[in-house]
Amino acid sequence: MIFVITITFCMFKTIVINMQPQSGNEDNTRRSFLKKTAIASVMLSTADLISLGSNHSDAKQKNPDQVPWYKSVTRWGQVNITEKDPAQYDIGWWRKFWKLTETKGVIINAGGIVAYYPTRVALHRTAEFLAGRDLFGDLCHTAHEDGLAVFARMDSNRAHEEFYKAHPGWFATDTSGKPYKAGDLYITCVNSPYYNEHIPAILREIAEFYHPEGFTDNSWSGLGRESICYCEFCKKSFRDKTGYNLPEVKNWDNQGYRQWIRWNYDRRVEIWDLNNRTTKSVGGVHCIWSGMNSGSISGQSRSFRDYKEICMRAEIIMLDDQARSDLGGFQHNGEIGKMIHGLLGWDKLVPESMAMYQAGRPTFRLASKPAPEARMWMLNGIAGGIQPWWHMVSAFHEDRRMYKTPGSVMKWHKENEQFLVNRKPVATVGVVWSQQNTDFYGRDNAEELVELPWRGMTQALIRSRIPYLPIHIDHVDRDATQFSLLILPNLAAMTENQVAGIRRFVEQGGGLIATGETSLFNEWGDKSSDYALADLFGAHFKGVGESPASKLAGEAYHTYLRLGPGLRGRPGGPGNDHELTVTDKRHEVLRGFEETGILPFGGLLQPLSLEPNAEILMTFIPQFPVYPPETAWMRTPKTDIPGLIINTTTNGSRILFLPADIDRQFARYNLPDHGNLLANLVRWAAKDKLPIAVEGAGLVDCHLYEQANRMVLHIVNLTSAATWRQPLDELIAIGPLGIKIRLSKNVRGTNLRLLVSNERISGEVKNGWCHFVVKSIPDHEVVVLT
Ligand SMILES: [Zn+2]
User: Fold this and answer.
1) Taking 90 as the threshold, does the pLDDT of residue 20 lie above it?
2) Is the pTM of this model over 0.70?
């Protein structure tokens, strides 16, 4: 029996589709019989050759100017095939689904742990229920017939017991020679012939027989940072390349361990290069290999994937970041898009695997995610320059609701694609990051030491509608001309070159905000005697005791900050205790706090020495009891321990140093005072040089871009009952919003088009700014100004 339902997309068009794929149908059985000897016919089929498009080496040579597929395929889809699926994969149904969802490329499981085609590579085990079917071949062939690009998906890194028994030396082992395992599977070693020979053999086989446009891999980077492999290949390679023996234990203070971290990163880059050489040698220059990468920098660190090095090599980033966390919110997806494009370039694509099932906490692989939750993740990613890629696990679902989820976003994306790719972001605030800081300062506590300060700072920017761009610390010289202000949120571990780059930015008049322990550590995470940027901060570390952050992690203290009038002098310096002078009035960065003398803090601080010109705007109030209430009085109401220091250089650069970790506290507790204070600091240090202002209630994430003669503004409505707790199941519209945008050259700002509500409105242009009103935003709106 065939059920029929109607699916309505965007309320414009109604399409009829069978209710679900047909499990184990007759066609599949017949096809699997036919495919038992089918590799040769797949290889030679004319449809295959015709449909290869820009990837095929012949086609490519005839059209050398054609945009390669990895720069033109902008909507992806993936059924992550389970081992049971060969018996139930209804290709005809999915083919209609591709069309229905405007999918231009598909990711199809090919090989690795198991093969979904009749492989000839020794020990490459076929999927349990494959039963002779060439599922990968059938899907690849069908996709090519429909003009879709194919990413052959690998899942390397693990193997079954028979492989381990055949080549025990190819597997990662602990000090006693015992193999590392994940469930029933054995983890292969990245330095063994498994990566140098076995995986390349599979890549060659697939490229030769099926001509996929390219390859991706789910877990290509092998054993993570938590385990050290002591196999013979690792022992020899490490000794040859570094001169050290493998570290016996994790010890971040040990130079051998630090070298082990770097050596691991280098090896992953080698694997990236090897796999690309392999696939291109068989499939042509556009047959690239692009392993998947994470949306979390600490996740990348734990997997030894150096984002900067990878993006220098990659033609496309396959982003595996399927859903939001409560702490990061939907806005994380806009941010990670901008962060990766900052490394990769804005002319390349970053499709992201977006779960249509309940991914995250908790995960239910076969249950539909509430559609608004999945939709908002997609939309906020698109706002940050990400391309949509619907993702489902298994080709057959009893919960069919997920089939309705991606269509409307994919269709809207297709209709408006020209505004969504090949654009340049507009922002005057750069927030600086470095993976090395995550590694060697964050170490095993990067979430607390690195990610929370980052998140608090960027959340304060989003909350106050200030567009920002993540900027890699090594790209400061390259990218900084567009910025009025750079922010270093607890960027503690810095090299001398990186410090010099920041210094040059300030010398050229740029503003600077630094928080926490910024520049107090060298590149390996060793604490220095003073901040490397002490002269800019106007403050010196006194070099006594532990760094506050080592006590802060995971704690909240009952502490406060006292708001100025400002103090000048050298508080707490030897012999200088009484040299402080009080300035006249409160500084404008404390605007909005007129009715209070204190702000809640939550962290710890210690005395610093100040340069004469520096001014303290907030001082620390040490902790006192919370319970019982009778004891909750300040034992030391006043200190001269600085929480916020302001320093203006002779060339007019505005510098704010915030030893108080307000950014971390804001991420953790979401206190509006902290968010408002951070926004005040940013506006002042950037000298109010901001490209947009948005008035009206609600939490919105704004992303602004330029194209040749137009500007494009995304406004994502984050306001809901589920803003900080997934999943979202109800959209709550906001509006009206009064918006003004500083117009770029060549943009008159008189014609405005709203790409979601499908309206045209007019803007009022005054002094180079365009003013307009957006009446209502249920989920998102995109405004095009010409
Ligand atoms: Zn090894």
Assistant:
1) no
2) yes
